[in-house]
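User: Please predict structures.

Assistant: First:
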Amino acid sequence: RPFPGDGGRGRLCRPPPRAPRAPATPRLWLGCGSGACPDCDAATAWGQFAQSGGWLGRPRGSTIPRDIDKQYVGFATLPNQVHRKSVKKGFDFTLMVAGESGLGKSTLVHSLFLTDLYKDRKLLSAEERISQTVEILKHTVDIEEKGVKLKLTIVDTPGFGDAVNNTECWKPITDYVDQQFEQYFRDESGLNRKNIQDNRVHCCLYFISPFGHGLRPVDVGFMKALHEKVNIVPLIAKADCLVPSEIRKLKERIREEIDKFGIHVYQFPECDSDEDEDFKQQDRELKESAPFAVIGSNTVVEAKGQRVRGRLYPWGIVEVENQAHCDFVKLRNMLIRTHMHDLKDVTCDVHYENYRAHCIQQMTSKLTQDSRMESPIPILPLPTPDAETEKLIRMKDEELRRMQEMLQRMKQQMQDQ
């Protein structure tokens, strides 16, 4: 191009060199930002990989960064896989409620799960309850909360403890528990093991009357008959009938009698050392509160400008979910929020395994006895010969006699010669 002062002569020149472009900042995978999950670890590895030169620093043919390969394998997602599978499959839980009539069993179940399972229930009179025998009634309902499905089965025992003579009135209940164990054992030993329906009783809420001075003989007999078959959680029913001092004394008396008669109720598992302090404090409060003093209510009342579930009395309002009034919240937390899975594990690993080992031992001993028994060999009677057989036998005998006579004559001739 022409330049000033060159006399109109133009000349070609090389364009000025461009300034080098600054390297682009690599986009980093930030993870969730907490720094405590596998995604954050992988994000850190990707960031270090990009800052160290990216793929330019890798040999040709490499596909996976070395840092990521070392720090993040992928098995940390196993809990998420189990969680997705469990939520998709759903959960089941079988709860048994036992105790004499009038202690609020149905009301407490309704308050625990906010579900009315006794819509078509028929209330019996006092005379009908005396003549009534112990029955086993099952109520099943499907509950869903935040995408989690629960198949809840409530096993009710109407007629328990209502008769004049309550000797072994718990026998139908123990038979029912054994029947569920037997059915599960058969299904487990069968061919279709994938679709086994678990109807075993995972927990039994036993209601103790607040009007006595401890455990009655029927209470002791029931718990001793079932404490090796099911997880028993004793409850003090209708705790609003007692003042706080009376509740404390009754709890101490029940604990002493449980230890005295050797009854094994459900024991809360020990906390791990790595648990937080809030969970440890909650576990200590649960252990100190047993047996739980509970109150149930199906009505909502207004107290201090708020609508709460409770009971209205002339002297005040008893709130079901107020921990200063009863142990309903502690029971709900234990039964549903913290120890439901442990109740199922104890049922499967302890109570059912004891039943299964007993069944296998009986089957083995029976097979051993059968193999040791010596069965005598039966002596078959000789068949009676018919006419043709007898004729054939006579002909053979006659032929044999002639041959013997012929041999005798030949022997005599040889001696004469």
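Second:
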Amino acid sequence: MTQVAGGKDAFQLVHHLTLTGSQFEIGSALTEEARRLGWSPTPADPIVNQARRAWFERHWPQHHDRMDGAAAALGLDPGQDELALDGLNYIPEGSGCSALWVPPSAATDGHGRVGRNYDFFPLTTSEIMGGTPGPDELPMASRPYVITTVPDDGLASTVITMSDLDGCMDGINSAGLAVMLLIADFENAAPPEYVSPQVGLGSVQLPRFLVDTCETADQAKQALLQAKQYDHGTPLHYLVADAHGQAFVWERGRDGSEHIVEFGDGPLCVTNHLLHRNPDPLSLPADTAASLGSYGRLRTLYERSKGGALSPRDLRDSLRAVQQSEDPAVPFRTLWSTVFDTADRTLSTRFYLGDGESYSEELVFGPR
């Protein structure tokens, strides 16, 4: 593990963790790192937990094998049902964000790319909950990880996470499939009432599931349509793009309906409102205090991406145009800004170092 950005005196301290071997060995190593950060397995309903393990074994064997590795690291029977051995989270989840897919046909060099800003609160958990920070309490998103996994069998990947070490917010695999999550419905998000693990994919597990199991956007569509998914009251949507120039947004409606949103062969913009309810970038409603600028950010991305071809610099400039300001009245900061090159199978990222401190230099990571 190496430190790649920031430091103890900066807002973020970023580590890059590279793991190789079997999925069992990778799961064991992730668990050891999570334990070092203070994680411990959580109690689970035995009936639900048994069904969870069966679902993973059938639909996501890579994760199932990593859970067996977690059990070994903890000295537990992998078949026990009283404790959940995944969800290696060390801080809460949830994010704002903006993203823009530029297909090969709209790129000056023919490389399909996705740019995304990851926006989150620069606050401690106590402050988010309305209290005062405890002694030495760090902001929730101040210790992100870049994790590269190169399993003996299957797809290698690199992901970025601020919470679950076995999930992610951004990821790209060795086939060039890129996935990222964004809050889908700011105006109607609600605090979770029940946070125990359920059968299927949790919000931050879904991107990791796709980079583990899929090589193309078409495969990802089928995998998602056949999967169970839950979000604990904070609906997210996901931009998925591949090395063949295909991309879509996956989201679920307020009634539980599932939607695949595409935009033909042109650029695809996504922020923090449901696209299937507002599919036309030219007919978006006005922002409200609750929407936190989602409609305005999408309009900006659309205007900057329509028409002529975009260069890599154009894409980065578009991300800067919707980057969160360093205004004390604004609850978010853009904590990292990433460009995925699906042709080169890389992600290039700048990390936020604090107000007035700008960002780290751009770091380039590949899935191997």
